[in-house]
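The authors assume throughout that readers already know how a fold can be written as discrete tokens. What matters is that the chain and its backbone geometry are given together, residue for residue. A single example would do more here than another paragraph of explanation. For illustration, here is how one protein appears when written out as sequence plus structure tokens.
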Amino acid sequence: MGFLTIKKKDTIVEIFKDSKKAERFINQMQNRGYELVNMSDGKKDYSLGKGLVGGVLLGPVGLLFGRGRSKLTVTMKLKDNEEKKSITIDLEKLAELKEKGIITEEEFAAKKKQILGI
């Protein structure tokens, strides 16, 4: 999804140029059992194309310091099994309340989204 992905055991680091893509990635990974550990921006990506344009207009200095674009680095980590078990138990209890008619379908859907963090 991002332009660079680094995976190591239970941790994924993605680097994005677009914050909307980063947001979609975070939501997808949270639905897969990952949690957001860190998100940082402000690093610059000095693209060759803009550097070349700068080089033509400003000489060698412009070539080296072409206009940069911000990058967004997102680090996600797989949640602990205990936390996943807790979520599963909460969802099972919630489904039981709905089946017994104690809560409505709308209340069930709202609480399910809250438990899943959606």
